[in-house]
Design a protein that fits this description.
- This protein is α/β, with parallel strands linked by helices.
- The chain is 28% helix and 21% strand.
- The protein has two domains: 5-258, TIM Barrel (Alpha-Beta Barrel); 350-380, no CATH class.
- It contains 13 helices and 16 strands.
- The strands form four sheets. It has a nine-stranded mixed β-sheet. Strands 14-15-16 form a three-stranded antiparallel β-sheet, with no helix packed on it.
- β11, α13 and β12 form a beta-alpha-beta unit.
Length: 380
């Protein structure tokens, strides 16, 4: 069963406590996915590549495919500037195939923590449900480059039903993060069906969708999709804005449509060299996000994924950004800087150290201005 199939479901709930399904027609993928560049050859219409550069990029394309929505491509200011922060996120680079020793195919150990197909169970009370391997854009820093490198096909509805059965049988699971790929590349009916399957799990209290659609293909947030999303009262949406220039009027409008459905939006940025590894850039991004009511949630240290070493920064760069933001701007604008531990170790929060010294009854702190003060600790 492939991802172009539309579905309907019966009222009976066989086996794993999820609804029965049947295929009844074929629907198209969202138009936003089709309106994109998917070949290096097509990039020559925009970029002044030499013949040797085209040849090199085609070698990259064989390993890490290309997909760039026409909307996002137009956010590039100067097509001749290889350092443009929008271009660096979407246009392939020869650096992707200059593999470094520390690069890994699956650094977070998702496959090791996958008890059934398309499900990752890393934390006690929540799981990651990978409903597609497709994205509107193949971000060059993607954590799951292995999916499109290996041309992994979308899970069938039968695969997803097995994952739902696992969720139902593990009562400690209270939250399901629907991810991929990008779940919004699915036909709206299919996404609706999957959300309905999750909703029928009595132990699930919260659902989250992880998507870059508002950032890279805001036209995907249409009336049909919003009418579906508003049915799910326990739904949250996580997006990924990485640079202030991505917060366009179109992106803001897409976020507002989701918010009008009663759905809160949080942002998860990735710290990327030459894109947002600058305190002023990150502050501007977070200010713009707050202005459109998108909460800056996480700033991730870039995972050590194959083909991404040119994006890696020092952990100290992230700490410096936090120091230049905490106290200097509102707390609602400051994300939590985290490193995702390798081999399924989970997220580790990293922050500047504001404790200078402590004794049995006092602690000496420094504040954001490096002013010292002493706090008398209470005793139980």
């Amino acid at each position: 069963m492939n991802s172009e199939e539309a579905i309907s479901f019966d009222n009976d709930e066989p086996g794993g406590g999820c609804p029965a399904f049947r295929v009844h027609s074929v629907t198209a993928r969202p138009a936003a996915e089709k309106q994109s560049i998917s070949k290096v050859e097509d990039l020559t219409r925009y970029f002044p590549f030499s013949d040797s550069e085209i040849s090199s990029l085609k070698q990259v394309e064989k390993i890490f495919p290309v997909r760039i929505p026409s909307y996002y491509l137009q956010l590039i200011r100067d097509y001749s500037d290889p350092g443009d922060p929008i271009r660096k996120q979407c246009v392939p680079s020869l650096e992707e195939i200059r593999q470094m020793e520390d690069e890994k195919v699956d650094p977070l150990g998702e496959e090791k923590t996958s008890p059934v197909s398309c499900l990752v169970h890393r934390y006690p009370d929540r799981v990651l449900l990978l409903v597609t391997s497709r994205c509107f854009m193949y971000c060059r820093h993607c954590t799951r480059k292995r999916l499109w490198k290996n041309k992994v096909s979308d899970p069938s509805l039968a695969d997803i039903a097995k994952a739902i059965a696992y969720i139902t049988s593990h009562k400690e699971i209270r939250e399901v993060v629907v991810s991929g790929g990008d779940p919004l590349t699915l036909p709206s009916e299919r996404l609706d069906y999957i959300l309905a399957m999750i909703k029928q799990c009595s132990n699930v209290e919260v659902m989250r969708i992880g998507t870059r659609a508002p950032v890279v293909a805001p036209e995907r947030i249409d009336k049909v999709l919003c009418n579906i999303l508003k049915q799910y009262e326990n739904l949250w949406v996580n997006v990924q804005f990485n640079h202030p220039r991505e917060v366009t009027p179109q992106a803001a409008a897409a976020c507002k449509k989701i918010q009008r459905c009663g759905i809160p939006i949080s942002n998860q940025s990735v710290l990327l060299k030459g894109i947002n590894d600058d305190p002023e850039v990150m502050k501007e991004l977070c200010h713009k996000l707050q202005a459109i009511r998108v909460r800056p949630y996480y700033l991730f240290q870039c995972d050590r994924v194959i083909g991404t070493s040119h994006f890696w920064t020092s952990v100290l760069d992230g700490i410096t950004i936090m120091e230049r933001m905490r106290g200097w701007t509102g707390g609602m604008c400051v994300p939590l800087f985290v490193i995702d531990g390798e081999d399924g170790k989970g997220k580790i929060p990293i922050s500047p150290n504001y404790i200078v010294s402590f004794s049995a009854d006092t602690i000496t702190f420094r504040n954001y201005k490096n002013e010292l003060f002493t706090y008398r600790d209470s005793h139980s």
